[in-house]
Every structure is written in C-alpha cells, then in structure tokens.
Amino acid sequence: APLHRLAALLAALLCVPGAQAQAPGPAPPLQVALPLIRPHSYLDEQGRPEGLYVAVFRELARRSGLRLEYSVQPFARTTHLLNLERTDLTVGLQTAQDGLPPQAQIVGTLGHLELVVWPLGGMAPRSQAAQWRGLKVGRLRGGCQALQAVQPDFVELASLEQGLRMGEAGRLQGLCAAADAIQHALQREPGVPPWLRDQTPTLLERAPI
Question: Considering only Cβ atoms within 10 Å of each terminal Cβ, which end of the chain, N or C, has fewer?
Fold first, then answer.
C-alpha cells in the first residue's frame, strides 16, 4: 500500500544506523506539522490528530522507532513553521515550493492529488484555468498557487466548508483545493444542494505529494 511504502522510505532516509546508540540520551521527538484539510489531516472531537497523513506518520514511527509529535495547523501556518525551523516534517504538493526555505527537502511521495476549481453558486463549469480570471475564487490561506498566474479574485478561507457557505450566499464563484477534500466537505456541509456535488471542476494539475 502507498502508506506502507512511504513510511518505509521515510524510515530509511531519517534513521542513521547507530545514531540512537551514540546519543547521550533520548533524542527529542521530531515535530510534524500537518495542514488542517479533511480528510487528509484534522482533529477529532477529542482534539486528537487523525486522517490519512497522520496514519502515514504513525506507521513511520512504528517502523523506525522515531518519536514524533504531531500538530495540525491551518494550511498556511505549516509553511510558516517550516521557514522558522520549528517543524521537521510536513506534507504538501511537490509543485508548490514557493516560499519554502532552501534547506527543505522532498523525502518521499505519498501519492497524487488533483488540484481543481469547483464551480459554486450556479456558476457554469469552465474547461480551462484561464476562464477563472477576475472571478471570486476561495482558497485556503496560501494555497492554490497553480491558479496564481490567472489572477482570479482570491478570497482567503479558514475552511472549505466556509467556502461552500459563501458560495451558497453568492459571495464566491469557485473553490480551489484538492478534489477529494472538496468532495469530503460537500458531504459534511448540511444544506448543500445535491446538484453541486455533481459539478464538473476545472482540473489545474495532478501533482505528487
């Protein structure tokens, strides 16, 4: 399974044989900052990290013996923590590296995400990214870099569910994020009209994470 393959790769890259034996004491836990995007990573009702990404790092810890501490942060803050060198590991699109510190390295590929713009509020589907120029498009703060050159009127969001509500109120025309994350939000948000789940999104890129 991809989860097990990635965990094995990370374990091989992060663990140096004999490092723990040479250390004078227990190594401090590695800090893992994950973006708050359901179903990838989120906090459950008890405030515990859960999701697909969390499962990957739990498997990594099991295979490698590394101690990991998780935090689930708003999307833009994960990059900010990396720049401040206050986290050791995170997950993101490998094509979206603008603003990352030069010492950041890609150590493995979990899979691929489809980054899309989902039409909202009765907006007709658009086949090309350029057709979103000047339109109000919601995005999680710091996300959707693949649409930047088109110059939509970006609206920064705290959550995809907020974007869906703004679309229903006529305040957004599109929502930019990973397709599976939008689909998950559509299932969770009450009052979403059924036809909205069947909209055809604009595919921006299919990128490795």
Answer: N
Structure tokens at 84: 């401040």
Q: Which residue has the tokens 């000047």?
A: 134
What tens-digit pLDDT sequence spans the chain (209 residues)?
455 555 555 554 454 333 344 455 677 888 888 888 889 899 999 989 999 889 988 888 888 888 889 889 887 787 777 777 778 888 766 555 555 566 666 666 777 889 999 999 889 999 999 999 999 999 988 788 889 999 999 999 988 999 999 999 999 999 999 999 999 999 988 888 889 999 999 999 998 77
Burial of 53 (0-12, 13-18, 19+ CB in 10 A): buried
Quick one: tokens of 21? 């034996």
- Burial class of residue 56 (count of CB atoms within 10 Å of its CB; 0-12, 13-18, 19+): buried
pTM listed for this prediction: 0.77
Q: Could you tell me if 107 and 10 are in contact, meaning their C-beta atoms sit under 8 angstroms apart?
A: yes
